[in-house]
Write a structure and sequence with these properties.
By secondary structure, this protein is mainly α. The protein has one domain: Ankyrin repeat-containing domain (Serine Threonine Protein Phosphatase 5, Tetratricopeptide repeat), CATH 1.25.40.20. Helices cover 58% and strands 0% of the residues. Helix 2 runs parallel beside helix 5, helix 6 runs parallel beside helix 8 and helix 8 runs parallel beside helix 10. The longest helix has 17 residues. The chain is elongated.
Length: 165
């Protein structure tokens, strides 16, 4: 269905909804990895047809992969917040993804995964180089946030221990 819509000229990266979500955000929130892959494949093909030079092509891909919603959520942040491990893994494979991009509150994808209680997503983000020292708009880093909730604090320590161990 997605391929059919794209072939018919649907705008795959429109942010027409009131929250500023594009189809990639929706795929990220719902764990639709195949749809996310199809959207990005379509974008890459479209850019080649438009005969963009390599630099322009990369800039556009960077913009789409890191596009923020009204809340400041990137597709990676959205997938992490919803605990979508496979989608996070897919997005982290894209060299243009910014792992440490933050939302309007200063929270990163790692913060979102911690809040969601998703140790698998946290591990993937840590392995991808997510910065554990980033601070949000209130001056808290991921450890402060995790330790404010004992169960999530233990989850964070477990993930970090598995990452370095």
């Amino acid at each position: 269905m997605v391929k059919l819509l794209l072939t018919a000229g649907a705008d795959a990266f429109s942010t027409g909804c009131i929250y500023g979500w594009c189809p990639l955000h929706a795929a990220a929130a719902n764990g639709f990895t195949a749809i996310a892959a199809e959207l990005l494949n379509h974008l890459r093909q479209q850019l080649k047809l438009e005969r963009k030079d390599e630099k322009e092509e990369e800039e556009e891909i960077v913009e789409v992969l890191n596009r923020k919603t009204a809340e400041g959520w990137s597709p990676l942040y959205t997938a992490a917040k919803h605990g979508q491990e496979d989608l996070v893994a897919f997005l982290l494979q894209q060299k243009e993804v910014k792992v440490d991009q933050v939302d309007r509150a200063g929270l990163s994808a790692l913060s979102a995964a911690s809040s969601a209680g998703s140790s698998a997503v946290m591990r993937r983000l840590l392995r991808a180089g997510a910065d554990v020292s980033l601070v949000d708009n209130n001056g808290n880093n991921i450890l402060h946030c995790a330790l404010s909730k004992p169960a999530k604090g233990m989850l964070f320590i477990h993930c970090f221990d598995n990452f370095i161990g």
